[in-house]
Amino acid sequence: MCVKVACVGGGPAGLYLSILLKRQDPSHDITVHERDPEGSTYGWGVTYWRGLLDQLHAQDPESARALDAGSVRWSDGVAHVGDLTARHSGDQGHGIGRHRLLEILAARARELGVRLEYASEADPGALPDADLVVAADGVHSALRTRHAAHFGTRLTTGRNPYVWLGTTKVFDAFTFAFVETRYGWIWCYGYAYGPDRSTCVVECAPATWTGLGLDRAGETEGRALLESLFADVLDGHPLLGRPGGTPFWQTFRTLTNRTWHHGNLVLLGDAAHTTHYSIGAGTTLALEDAIALAAALREPAALPQALARYEHERKTALVPLQSAARYSAQWYENLPRYIHLPPERMFALLGQRHSPLLPHVPPQLYYRLDRAAGQLEALRRFKRWLGPKVARTVHARELTSRP
Question: Of the four listed, 17, 150, 159, 253, which is most buried by Cβ atoms within 10 Å?
């Protein structure tokens, strides 16, 4: 259908789309433009779950096998609250280094005949000469920004500052650690992504951030302070900062767009949408976008209809995940509401943080109702019915209150 495709952005979404389109029709002329040099990606590890791996095996078994082989696994979650610890078993999670993930996808794309042009900056004022141009250039997408009014781009900034770090401590479970300071609570979550590395995300309320001096600390000083705060969970291992020594505290920005396509330009991955990092779905959603767009382009339809189908399918799929991400972020922003529960109960509600009911029910009562619902089918059905109803009502109120 699309003879010539230009994909701007060499992240997971853009690379995987190029793989799928080449598998569908080797005659497609596909070029991926990445502004950074090859191998210079910033990032530690990414997480995904078995459901994504099953999808990838169905789409391209070769890259899925390489991804599986390059990943580490865990099935437990552990929460440390001060001197207390709770541990739960759950679904198997997977972690892989972002650098390794991109290596796997780039090698597979090249093998299939995709041209990869690194250190190639696309001019947002002049779209590449192609039948289809894919903006897969992330949350700061220059192509999307040029047409922001058409796309209806909206950015909502979260409250809590956070920093994305690495560590040589290899966690054997998805690990949460909550530490109380004189300025309030600070917490981290960590997960392994290789035999000698883990990701460690640190977050806190703004008052804690400024009270501890993290807003003013240099990169070395800031990491040393965090290492001392999380010494027990790190077991003496260091935290690793961003290459170049730049502290990268930020607040999360939730990105939405009213529409995802404009002429022959279409948004993909973080250029189209973001979901809060606390649900660990960013890479999964980017790859699922690529799968949906490739499927829409495979159908015998004109390009506008194919892009509209892709947009509708993915927007529909994102609704429950965006709701889950919103409530997950709010759970952490309202941590004092839950942190003084017994560790087992706090951890149970941490696992329920995506629920639209939880903010409206006293935590102890919610815990008891949730335990009862796990044993009674009628209560489970009621909870499944009421949760989305509350979410829709709250979302409608948010929309009507916007300026």
Answer: 17
